[in-house]
Amino acid sequence: xxxxxxxxxxTHQTGxxxxxxxxxxxxxxxxxxxxxxxxxxxxxxxxxxxxxxIEEASRFMRHARRTTITTSDIDQALRVLNIEPLYGHNPxxxxxxxxxxxxxxxxxxxxxxxxxxxxxxxxxxxxxxxxTLPKGVSWTAHWLAVEGVxxxxxxxxxxxxxxxxQEITKSPPxxxxxxxxxxxxxxxxxxxxxxxxxxxxxxxxLSRELQLYYTRLTASLLPPTDSTKRTAxxxxxxxxxxxxxxxxxxxxxVGEGVVTALKEGAQTEADGRSLEVLLDVVSAILENNTLFxxxxxxxxxxxxxxxxxxxxxxPSHATHLRTxxxxxxxxxxxxHSTTYPSxxxxxxxxxxxxxxxxxxxxxxxxxAIRGLVxxxxxxxxxxxxxxxxxKVVGSECTPGETGPLxxxxxxxxxxxxxxxxxxxxxxxxxxxxxxxxVTMRQLQDVLGNFFAEKLYGDKGWALGILSSIKQQS
Length: 473
Fold this sequence. Notes:
It is a single chain. The chain contains 20 helices and two strands. Helix 14 crosses helix 15. The protein is elongated and about 140 Å long. The termini are far apart. It is an all-alpha fold.
């Protein structure tokens, strides 16, 4: 029989990762008797894991449209493979590897690369000037201008003083055609003091479209124009947005129009129609919810109060003008009395002075009464009853007199009806009855003889007014 052939010795082929590296790691961990077979198997497994990581990292590189693998790609690949990533490597600042010089004693060793660490000289660093790191890129919001006024904050450019602006404008050009020299800049402290002392205004330039809109709007409102155009213009004021820049110009136009219509001693029918349109403009501005009119209330109130309290309005328009002005005043106070709590008391004081002053005309007193009615029930009670306004008006009326002044007190939508509504089936007071006689005397004490007599025909209305006054007092 022939002898069995001896098995050939197994040779372990190693790849890029050598078994010597595995043996070095084992010796660093205190393992000295690691066999060649185990070392070769571990080296093959390590090389397989490295290939797996590099293959995953190359996918991230291709998705990022790059041709170079970065440390971030390796970190993402390790996370995909459920391996904890390596820390301390920045993809934006990749490490620089240098090739080590060959070792004379180990000629068979392949090339060795290492990270080139920069040597820092602390003496040189301490001698250099300190560099402050700038802030990171960020964004913030600030007010460029508030109602045409530029806030004095560092984000806004400093406003040019008027005297410097005039000097630049008036300076003649140079002989050689060059621009004039820039004026010397002031110190930071001086500029800061000027900014704190005075508030520079930003000139607001209206666009060509707004200028054309303003011209056509004002031309369409005032008579003699077509009522259809006037209605369309008022609807535009009432509903359109984007008119905030025109608001100061419109309010100034309304104020100038009221002054022009009232400056003459006797107003004409054309003046009456103009005043009606101007009051409609103010009402439309108040109804526009997109307009911020609080800074301009002090310019609106004179136009409304002047129309309301003027003594000689055109006879055919007087009642309508005062009623419209009172309604506009009521709307204004309803919208803004919460923001300005002192606005209603101040207006009520002005109307009370116009009502009880001895030198005022009947037209002014009528306007004051309608204004108090527009403010509300409390204003009517304080102005007409507690302030004695109804007695002053009654003392100037003759028995049996009728007219707008009397109607402002007795008309179903005016002063006394605000305190208490009239009865549907009135019953007259009986002077022979003791209870009715007491009621009649109380009416005379509260309202005066003139208006007390007008309430004698409605017992329920008279008792309601007296009870309303007692409850609120």
